[in-house]
Amino acid sequence: MALDKNGIAKRIAQEVQDGFYVNLGIGIPTLVANYVRDDIEVEFQSENGVLGMGPFPFEGEEDADIINAGKQTITTMPGASFFDSATSFSMIRGKHVDLTILGAMEVAENGDIANWKIPGKMVKGMGGAMDLVASAENIIVAMMHTNKHGESKILKKCSLPLTGVGCVTKVVTNLAVLEVKDNAFYLLERAPGVSVEEIQNATEGNLIVNRQIPEMDI
């Protein structure tokens, strides 16, 4: 059974380690804060100038002045701080963020990522995505394995305008966990009830299956 967006976020939360500073991109990544273990200390950073983001607020407890980069209302943890964009991007460009979690429209087998523009569709800009992928050394992508037409988004080569080149280290989709290295996707885990064959059929890029593939533990 393929995962939903919350399932993807729950699996990625297992990659977050004690003491990490983590940037959460727009979309599925924002859900990760809801699933991080209670016994570790993690600081979530948002590029609009927040350090110390917490889970999403309960209905009726939202504060419209406290938002993430996607303009969603958020909560903050004790000791959280707020600052301007210049300070925020100094953190990012200075490599002070241990893990970056982004959404994507396409990822290629060499680690390229396309996540900001579809030609012909109006966009407000690329936001901080290009700074994040240029500066981060540990980038996990959260995405659906295929598009609404059933076509693979895990590709040999991206067809959309690139956000970053050769930068993605791992991809977690609704079907699988993939490590990106040596110009290939290495299959690490599969979603509960999803077969290796299903993942192979949904993957255009070079997929390496070199061992028994366990199901995700979520």
Automatic annotation (TrEMBL):
The keyword Nucleotide-binding does not apply. The keyword Metal-binding does not apply. GO terms for molecular function: CoA-transferase activity. Keywords: Transferase. Belongs to the 3-oxoacid CoA-transferase subunit B family. This is CoA transferase subunit B. It comes from Polaribacter aestuariivivens.
